[in-house]
Design brief:
The complex is a heterodimer of chains A (516) and B (292).
Chain A: E1 21-30, E2 34-46, E3 56-66, E4 70-71, H1 82-95, E5 103-110, H2 117-126, E6 135-138, H3 141-152, H4 154-158, E7 164-170, E8 175-181, E9 184-191, E10 198-200, E11 206-209, H5 211-219, H6 232-251, H7 257-263, E12 268-269, E13 279-285, H8 286-294, H9 301-304, H10 311-324, E14 328-329, H11 338-346, E15 348-350, E16 364-374, H12 382-406, E17 416-421, H13 427-444, E18 450-455, H14 460-471, E19 476-481, E20 490-493, E21 503-506
Parallel strand pairs in A: 1-5, 5-6, 7-13, 13-14, 16-17, 17-18, 18-19
Antiparallel strand pairs in A: 1-2, 2-3, 2-4, 7-8, 8-9, 9-12, 10-11, 15-21, 16-20, 20-21
Helix pairs in contact in A: 1-2, 3-11, 6-10, 8-10, 12-13, 13-14
Chain B: H1 3-22, H2 36-44, H3 62-70, H4 87-105, H5 110-115, E1 119-122, H6 128-133, H7 143-152, E2 159-164, H8 169-189, E3 198-201, H9 207-215, E4 219-225, E5 236-242, E6 253-259, H10 266-283
Parallel strand pairs in B: 1-3, 2-3, 2-4
Antiparallel strand pairs in B: 4-5, 5-6
The chains are: A alpha/beta (516), B alpha/beta (292).
Amino acid sequence: MAARIGYPVWLGMGDAKMDGSWITSAGIDIGTSTTKLIVSRLKLVRTSSALSLPRYEIAERELMYASPIHATPLTGADQIDADRVWAIVSGELDKAEVGKGDLKSGAVIITGETATKTNARAIVHRLADRAGDFVVAAAGADLEAYLAGKGAGADRRSLRIRGAVVNIDIGGGTANAAIFRRGKLIGTITFHIGGRLIQLDETGMIRYVAPSIRTWLGANGYRIEAGIVVAFSMIKDICYALSREMLRYFIGGNVALTDWHRNNNGLIAGQSLEQVPEIEEWMVSGGIGKLIQERAAPANLAEMAIHHDIGPLLASALRDCMQASSLRVVDADETVRATVIGAGMQSMEIGGATVHLDPKLLPIRNLPVLKLELSAANEGREEVVRLEAVRLEAELEDTLRTAFNLFDPEAVPPFALAITGTRTMNYAFLQHLADRLESRFTHYFPRSGIMVVVCERDIAQALGQALQRRCEKRLKVICIDQIRVEHGDYIDLGEPVSGMMIPVVVKTLAFPNGAR
Amino acid sequence: MNPSLELEQFVDRVMVELERKFGSDTLTDDPKSESVSMEVKGAVSANASTLTTIKVPKPKWQEGLAELIESTPARIGVWRTGTRPLTKEMLKFRCDHAAAIDSIYGEVNEQILSRFDLFTVETRYGNTENYLKRPDMGRIVTAAGEELIRVKCRSHPQVQVVVSDGLSANAIDANLPDVYPSLLDSLEAYGLRAGTPFFVRGGRVAVMDHIGELLEPDVLVLLIGERPGLVSSRSMSAYLCYRPRKGTVESDRTVISNIHPGGTPPVEAGAYIGTLVHKMLEQKTSGIHLDL
């Protein structure tokens, strides 16, 4: 990380940006049962010295307003009522005293069972007049786990200790766990464990058992279904067993993992981790996290069934199991609002400040990413150099053909090309790359009008100008850098903030173990 | 081939031999690693660094040490034998020191100068010893040089580019082929016109003022070799000034420093210098008065 070195004041080019500029960002989480909103301020500060290329980062994130928790208005089982959601959101934005032009960035995350494309489309449609302000994403379990982990502070906590920190965000239907080490996400996993999977009343009469947990219940000898009456002790057994098994997944060690899967068929949603890293601490966020921090253990059915579900009992069982385990338990910074805070305050990055673009073309939303990895060159004799050129040509041809098959060639722009890899980028190579890229892009996307390139390393302005020279007026080039993206990601490029700072939101994430 | 490059390759070969002889534990492919957490790291985290070499034999916290070493080019975590540094570390240190000295006494490759059509003038530095003792003499172009500049260069250019060896000829050899053409492209993209470029042997930063008097450019860009250090002997700076003249103060100059492949990326630096020139012409100022 670039540190600001104490250069003499007379070299400091004392501009106001050294003190940073603030932008307002909103986060909205629309879940199966609840909807919430937060408004935050993000401070952008120049982090590079006055003698280096400019580089800005988000230095401070400040929560300004958190809405009460609203019930999500639905029109069917999992159909969001977009009009009523918008009424809630605009009401809350008014209460937060956020004017129409104040929002510079924002994320709407649709989570849980409502995270469908239809719902996302409905929300986008309803937000049409404010579409410039918001990113809308139907979050998969991985993104939800990651945002909740960020909101709960697990990433920051992991920077203070040696081992990994797991944050488990448990709501009504699923437990989304994200593991962080040294500030970085190293894996996510989702369990079918939640407070509303079994619903019952004060008498012990079962009202509902979620299909997602029936396999596990059956395999473990718990025969319950809607309509029957059960004893408090049986529900208690189930909650303890679920808590114990979930925790055992993380601390059993990799040898025990096969064993674990045999005993807990159906408990994991999606893919398991290939290996579980060594974990030092855990924290719990979400509705269950709040209950863990705030409520005593229920002693009977009446105390448990205040919301007609097993939530309070699951929370106290999990608390007991965590305290009995060998790992340290830490409180999450945020519980019920972890995901929305993660979405509103943590989802945005700032790209490099030396870029090539026309601000009039921004914002650009939902751009799919295709990656081109340039491996280190074998520099040397002439024939080696010639072979390198042939290889680059083939790689570019492959990538652009893939793009042509995947994306709409009429879209403007059709996709973002992410250039990564260890290849040294000298002037000669950059010219050659620009040459070939322009030729292949024009061949496959002759009517595209805009080409978007995202580089990992700091070369955007140079590559951008090299491309623009070749494209002349036919094609506008947007080239940004210092953003890491992967195949299958979607990115949003916001409008530039005070000049050349481009807010970027990377929407799906790269998971090291390939679990998506 | 450049003799200093040959020397460096030779030293690299010696280093490789030494590595082989004494062994060196690297983070990712150390078969002796007993730490379970390291095995997990390799499996879970795909982007584990393959480059960081840990020289401390049994670090208490390998990952933390690797983080520190990656955060700086300084010589930290280099280990020791008794109270002394290891032989290979000592050799590496002396090699870097020798490279720094070579940079000061070296000459810029003539082929590079002719490739970019740079003719050469000299300052009144005389010789390297005197250059080091008398910075003031590196700020004035010789009478013959003045004459050559008057004859060859277009007067009153919008942008005047000047290249100088300064304290590191190596810096020019290593970075000019990336920075200079990228800068020209950037100027062209902004629709700016550059004057006739040339090379100044034995120049100091403030030679800008003398050249400014001679040619009266709107903006002068000086690409000059930096004082070599132990991290890099090939680091270049770009000094920019709006209408430099006799008596210009240092705070009126804008600088982008540490340009080399391990620091400020040369190609991107070239493109960004164009942006700075554009801003200077727009705001008619430079240095601390320039609003970025």
